[in-house]
Structure prediction request, 312 residues.
Amino acid sequence: MLLLHLSDVEETRWAEKFRAALAPYPVVQRGDEFAPGDVRYIFVWKPKADAFEGLGKLKAILSLGAGVDALLKHPKLPDAPMVRFVDDDLSQRMSDYVVAQVTMHHRLHSRFQADQAARRWSQLYPPAAAARCVGIMGMGVLGQDAARRLLALGFAVRSWSRTPRTIEGVEGFCGAEGFDAFLGGTDILVNLLPLTPETTGILNSDTFAKLRRGGLEGGPVIINVARGGHQREADIARALGDGTLGAASLDVFEVEPLPATSPLWDIPNCYITPHIAAISSETAGVAYYAAIIKDHEAGKPLINVVDRARGY
Ligand code: NDP
Ligand code: OXD
Prediction:
């Protein structure tokens, strides 16, 4: 039996699609009558405190999202393997966002927007994309996809990961020992790290001060599409104000929804989106997890299992 544990609105939509894909395998929602001991798989996002109660026979926990930081913090998380969402559709959506933001900053959007507001005609030709270095933190599924698409557009790309990663055309750095050198050549910093104790708060004043200056007119830029816990918002506001950063594109926040009182809303070169960079689509998500359940029931191993010790 598959149990869904999502928000009320989402749950029914996903349940209908899962039933169609898995029939006659039983699929239940939280409000249905079922014996918790019959549940073998739970498909979950932002689980409530009692989400796993009575689920003593779980074979796997299936995460709606690619990032599992919130799940890992659940105080009653069962000791079952956890599978995260890895899918071409998700990667494509994320890369769309990253490419759009990188291109916008490369083409000096903030500068020309300010000129327009001042009715100022002031020509400045941005250099070729190859003159811009995009540094991607996190060279996993999403980081690698974004890197390939940025390379195809002509940008210089470098990466930072926990262990060494070799991607053709990408200059790789890794570990604490490689961090400063990585930042020192980066004009546009893209965060695609998982949120773990090691990466919490990594987007802070110290990091911003180490980014390359002079490569991007107006100052270096950050793009955070991973988790709000990665960023120190007070540091971002300060850095945007004193010119340490030229701009920031933020899709995720320390508190979501971003409170109306946040100073970030009023900063013109802070580009805010409401955690929409890449959504797990129902069509792609059901196809992915229905195949995983069928394969697992047929005796095949689970794929994309989270390493709990690593935290991602
Ligand atoms: P992966 O697990 O595939 O990749 C993680 C990468 O981060 C790996 O390269 C890993 O290094 C690196 N990493 C982990 N810890 C460290 C560390 N301490 N120091 C340096 N590098 C580190 O993740 P995905 O690419 O699938 O997803 C990344 C994140 O994107 C998710 O965790 C989620 O938070 C976020 N996300 C946001 C969405 C949105 O809409 N805003 C949508 C989907 C995901 P190594 O290669 O050595 O293992
Ligand atoms: C995810 C997300 O982790 O949507 O997939 O944030």
Observations:
- The longest strand covers residues 156-161.
- The chain has a mean pLDDT of 97.
- The first helix runs from residue 8 to 22.
